[in-house]
Amino acid sequence: MAPSTRDTSATLGRVAVFAALIIVLGTVVVPLPGGVPITAQTLGVMLAGLVLGPRIAPLSIVLVLVLAAVGLPVLAGGRGGLGVFVGPTVGYLAGWIAGVVVIGLLMRTGRVTWWRAAAASLIGGVLVVYAFGIPVQALVTGVPLLPTALSSLAFLPGDLIKVVAATLVVVALQRAYPRAFASRRAPREAVAA
Q: What is the pTM of this model?
């Protein structure tokens, strides 16, 4: 197998693994009033951004969203179909894509450390996702922005736990299997390695 074919296969494998992880974590659901459940899927989103980087991680998210669009029950609570793209969670789904890019960019600037992983997860996996999700949820539900933002505070403790979990997993993964992070290296780093 030629090196470029091997690299493409490895990248596709990573995309599929993280898409599957996000889907599996969607089976952990706590329903809330307002239509947006607490789910572990954002943990998978954080991990994808931390490990895969800003160029590859969005492909995992897009794969999950495409599978949802064709009707597969891959989102929290077994939801799927085009209806989820007009519901109150659509902003959060769009936020996943922007969030993994931000996480990946923040992680790309240096080696994996606990504080960099925690900061990237918090900024990209929580703040960016909320920045997309809350306004769209307010628009779709017809509830003003401030009450929607205040009701979203119910998600914050769980999201902070996910930030800690993602940080611990990524730091342990870096120590145990650094090759998992090969796809997040910049092209110059890959050539030098």
A: 0.88
